[in-house]
Amino acid sequence: MRALLCALGLTIQALILLAVRSPLAHFPAIYLATFALFCISVYAAGRVRRGGWWLIIAFAVSFRVSLLLFPPFLSDDVYRYVWDGRLQTLGINPYSFAPNSPEIAAYRDESWPLINNRDIPTIYPPLAQVGFLAAAAAMPEPIALKAAMTLFDLLCLFMLGKLLEMRGESRIHAIVYAWHPLVLFEISSSGHCDPIAIFFLLLGTATIIRARSGKSNEAGQALIWLSASFMTKLFPLLFAPFFLTRTPRRQWLWIFPLPLLLMAIYIRPGSGLFESLRTYASIWRFNDSVFALAHLVVGDLQTAKLICGAAVAVATLWAATRPWRIEDQIMFGLSWFLLLSPQLDPWRLMWVVPFLVMRMRLSWLVLTGTIVLSYHPLIVQGPYEQWVESGVLKLLEFVPFVAVLAAESILRRRRAAADLSSELTRTSTRDPES
Question: pTM of the predicted model, to two decimals?
């Protein structure tokens, strides 16, 4: 099986190089071919007895390095990261000025036209800005930002290996993250900053598991790591109930110091952060699924957002009361957030991949493949146009997911019924007079 895994890795590497050298219109087909080989690789890895971990790591590094060497072609977000970082090296707060502000016109460079949404200040939270500053201080170029995000990406991979060991499972299952084309293209090619937040979320999860197993009494540290996650990307704050219910109340205050420190450094009177977030929340919408149905029913965008937001909050609080593993609770809350969100970008869906490592859910795995169809507006309309989505392609993206999700639900119910019947049979056998 190791020989097969090696052959699959070499073929995936060739497809990655083909993707970055081919016209953008060819990307969906190349991605789907890569995804198919990735799925075969996951199957093959599960049958490798030993010695497969470092083979997986070697190819994981090779895939990422090859993508680092080429400019991003699926997203222009990294140019905003570079801009924010470069402003900070000049002593300018990125929350104070939009890129097109005349006050900072003197600092525009050749990459300035590539920045998106130049009319609003940055929306990226303070810890993300620390990362942008560190990378820009080393080299104010996209490759430096991409390299920094790839480093955190690899840290996520090793953290997943550690979590698997803590669960008594083989690290080789981390191939689901290590070789997933969605992870590869969204981080090492596009340079999205999500791996910083994912790493701290995984670190917090590992800390909670250690504390609950009696190997550590510092569950409060997990709240610090969670705060680092949501100070990089805001939505992991949604997972706070899962951490708080596992932490002694006297340690709950540990969630506050890092956010307060970062806000004291970055947020000033007149800062544009909250204005930018309001703009983002009020107008941005892309590739929505359940949210689109809610909007269709109620007819008002803001009402649909309130209803869906309330549903996510209720579902999360309910999950916090269930006797589940914390990683399963996070996946549950994440699932509701993604499905009821007005925006499901490919790099946001990438968040489910680490949790597929710990518990495979075929429906979500399928969606991480079909999500490539959401790039259709970029391919046919370009990056700087008001995108119009294709209803047909949206159905092709989500219908397989819904079908597999329904099948999983039916099988789960049947399995639960069979387990209950078996338990009742054993009980009646032990006590025939009852």
Answer: 0.94
Nearest alpha-carbon partner for 187 in 131, 259, 123, 125: 131
User: Is the CB of residue 181 less than 8 Å from the CB of residue 144?
Assistant: no
| b (16+ CB within 10 A) / e for 396-408 | ebbeebeebbeee
Q: Residue 47 is encoded by which pair of tokens?
A: 């049958």
Per the DSSP assignment, residues forming a β-bridge with 343 are 286
C-alpha 273, offset from chain centre = 22
Q: d(Cα 322, Cα 38) in Å, to the nearest integer? A: 33
Q: Which amino acid is present at 271?
A: S
- Of 386, 353, 389, give the one whose Cα is nearest residue 374: 389
Conformational region of residue 134, where left means phi above 0, alpha means psi within -120 to 50, and beta covers everything else: alpha
Residue 281 is predicted with a pLDDT of: 74
Each residue's pLDDT tens digit, 188-217: 999 999 999 999 999 999 999 998 876 666
pLDDT in tens, 353-391: 999 999 999 999 999 999 999 999 999 988 766 788 988
pLDDT at 429: 62
> What is the percent of the chain where pLDDT is above 70?
95
> Is 177 within 8 Å of 157 (Cβ atoms)?
yes
Q: Which two tokens mark 190?
A: 């596009």
- State the average pLDDT for the chain: 93
What is the pLDDT at residue 1? 80
How far is the first Cα of the chain from the last one, in angstroms, to the nearest whole number? 52
Crossing angle (nearest 10°) for helices 142-166 and 126-138: 120
On whether the CB atoms of residues 238 and 337 are closer than 8 A, the answer is yes
pLDDT for residue 434: 41
CA 302 from centroid of its chain's CA atoms:
25
Residue 173 in tokens? 């299952």
Beta bridge partners of 286: 343
- Domain borders along the chain are 2-282
Tell me the C-alpha distance between 314 and 294, whole Å.
16
| Cα 202 to Cα 337: distance, rounded to the nearest angstrom | 18
Give the angle 362-367-372 at the CA atoms, nearest 5°. Answer: 145
**296: exposed, middle or buried (C-beta count within 10 Å: 0-12, 13-18, 19+)?**
exposed
Which tokens belong to 162?
């550690």
Q: What angle do CA 411, 364, 342 make, to 5 degrees?
A: 125
Round to whole Å and give the CA distance between 63 and 42.
Answer: 16
Residues sharing a CB contact under 8 Å with residue 325, sequence separation 6 or more, in sequence order:
none
Closest C-alpha among 177, 145, 160, 155 to residue 59: 177
- CB of 103 closer than 8 Å to CB of 172: no
